[in-house]
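ok here's the first one, seq then struct tokens
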Amino acid sequence: MIDTINLKKILSEETDNNIKQIKNAAHEGLKKSLDSYKEEYKYTPLLRKIEKKFETLTPVNKPIKNLNKYSKHIPKNEKYYIVVINGSYQENLSRKPKELLVAKFNELKDQNKDQFLKTYSKHDDSKKDFFSSSNTINHNECLTFYIDKDTSLKEKISIINIIDSQNPTYFRKCFIIKKHSDISFSEEFVNTSNNVSFSNSVTELFLDENAKLNYYSVQNMDKNFHYNSINIFQKYNSVSNFHTYSFTGEIIRNNLNIKLEDKNCYANMYGFYAIKKNSLIDNHTSVDHIDENSISNEHYKGIIDKGSNGVFNGKIFVRQKAQKTNAFQSNNNILLSDDAKVNTKPQLEIWADDVKCSHGCTVGQLDEDALFYLMSRGISKKDSISLLLSAFSSEITEKIEDENIKEEYQAIILKELEGLNHE
């Protein structure tokens, strides 16, 4: 698979020397990133499956024609939205707030380009993850987002990533959120092709001092393959809230990596997965506490239907300097049948002595006593199971501060729960 990456062709189409250097460096580290692949993808055979489905990892970049056919995928009830097709930003289909700069990297002015080069490919996981390395090499265009200081937006900005290709597609984004700003994004991937797809997305986010970010992601990929790596670098007194909701996909791999660089950083990670149709959802998270007085809070919950597989691996690092750290991690799972599977592995590595850290995981089935109680009150078995599963998921959605956004995602989850096993 490595040999099918046509670096020479990719570099010949690249005009920016800075990007050429970044792609060259990623290619040199590509084989090295395979050293850790066996362990990091122990329960997730993503590379083997993709090798059977696709002849090459190199994308075929074709001009996008007839943009009107994609307009039906634009949410009618959203005030702001960014449309990206096969990794290419579509400004004519997008509607963004005036406070937000969105541009292709190679179209930035030199001053803005210099700012992004301090972040771009500096905080991703390409040195240790094969698919992230592949994204760095293969992506055709990095979409850059810049939010100036003292900017506060009440409405969330939706990012709609459309996949319309029988070849692998690559999405690359880089965010800079300056001091004292507060902003929310939601992101989804939509496959409009009749072919099984492989989409590869890498995102880097830089949060300056006192910045706040809410980031929501919904994944419903049917029989498609999807790799998603989100990498966050936080400065003093910044706050990040990440919500990941996953439902179907042949294989979905989520890497969420957070570096709390300065004092008083706060990171929340919430995830919910309700897996059906023989799907495999793999959530790998990492929180690196580098300085003191920071807090991380992580809670993932999963419902696994028959024939499906859930994977969770959460890592917490507390460096020697990171005294007064408070880190919490929890993963809870319900298996709805005997052939549903989950592999969960919490990890703590602590070099500081004045900390409060805890982790835990549970794997079980529906509470039979609670089910019997509901059915004894005249509620059908199907409706009783739905009530219990809904209550199980509510602990995650209750963490959403915005009531409108909370209702939106609660409705999505309830709809997905209806399709689970109720036998």
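and now the second one, same deal
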Amino acid sequence: MSKKDKNIQITEREKMVDGKLVSELVTARGDVIGTVLEDEDCFRAVLPDGEEFVLATREEAYGWILREY
């Protein structure tokens, strides 16, 4: 039996925290699936359970969060 693909609507919500841009990826139900923090020369992708990964670009950080979700 094969798995069916699920289409899930994800939106980006941006806000400023302590002078830094923070982006949250949010499902249509309002669940935050991950956060991207912009540092000086890298981006930190953080999952709700606290797991964190450092990446070079914002797109890579978004991709990592979506793969983990």
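notes on #2: Residues 2 and 14 are 37 Å apart (CA to CA). The beta strands are 10-17, 20-27, 32-38, 43-46, 52-55.
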